Amino acid sequence: xxxxxxxxxxxxxxxxxxxxxxxxxxxxxxxxxxxxxxxxxxxxxxxxxxxxxxxxxxxxxxxxxxxxxxxxxxxxxxxxxxxxxxxxxxxxxxxxxxxxxxxxxxxxxxxxxxxxxxxxxxxxxxxxxxxxxxxxxxxxxxxxxxxxxxxxxxxxxxxxxxxxxxxxxxxxxxxxxxxxxxxxxxxxxxxxxxxxxxxxxxxxxxxxxxxxxxxxxxxxxxxxxxxxxxx
Length: 231
Description:
- There is one protein chain.
- The mean pLDDT is 96.
- With 231 residues, the chain is an alpha/beta fold.
- The longest helix is centred in the N-terminal third of the chain and has 18 residues.
- The strands form two sheets. The protein has a five-stranded mixed beta sheet, covered by helices on one side. A two-stranded antiparallel ribbon has the order 1-2.
């Protein structure tokens, strides 16, 4: 099982480097291979990682029912592992809409922030990392929204770099003029594991009463419309 999983993942990586790679077919074939692997080696420790990859792929493709099923299998079969805890967190994250939600923690500049203190304002939480260019593109949109709703909107970042200096040096002056929570440990930090954040960006819109209006990866057109609706 150990060797088979590493052959499977390495072959996928090598084929992805080909100049003529058909990425859609490669991804589809890789998902089929992961399903076959899980079927054959369902009790292997690597089966947890394989199922998480299947869950994440379905989540990013907006197949949330299938994503929940795969996350659920990991959470129930490997509950005491980091994969099991992340999967349980992902199920919670996919069920956030309409629920009360708050975050608190230490920021990159050594202060503390608690989104509960922003009651009465809408809040957007963005999980990001220094290497994530789509995250930085979304930051531009969030700056626009802050300018549009200066008195009614707060933004809070959650940085998932291991090194805080890496995070700070990756941001141009004024790129993200809002609090940035940083716990260390990157994607294994409590704030990431608790919500099963496996890739970035992850964006959460919270209304004035502290309830989640919408969550997803990017700051999407749908989220922009919902922000306008509550403000």
